[in-house]
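WARN retry 2 of 3 for item q-0093 after timeout on previous attempt; input resubmitted unchanged.
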Amino acid sequence: MKATQIRFFSPQENSKPKEKKVTKSTPITGYISSAGKLVFPQKSIAKLDFDPSNAKFKIGAEEGKRKIKSLYLVPAGDDQDGAFVLEKAAKSYSVSLPFILQNNGIDYTRTKYLFTVKPFDFGDGIEGYELQLNDQAPKAVYTGKPRGRKPKVAQG
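OK item q-0093 returned
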């Protein structure tokens, strides 16, 4: 009997192939507090590309709009006039804008506003941030079946 070519298996071939993990980038978010502050949680600040302790921003909105749908933060750079500073809080950074928000149709006292931060190209190599506002409607009343035990009916 003639020896034939034998292909040997390896232990690696006997294991399930590893699936490549698809890293889904979570959106960078924040909210407007009931005191009229733009609040950036620590997690969101970590994902943005700037030092929050030294950062100064010019804040604006689209011209000609009555109600703000997006706010824009652009690094102030050398032009420090009219720049806002991020204030450090316990687990976040914030910018106080109560009068600006009220004057532009954002009632933060009655509705909680969330925002998503998206980088945008401002021009001249400057990257700004667009904060897209989403008003969070009050939680809908539950209308389904009541859960748990049925209440005992008093017999008379």
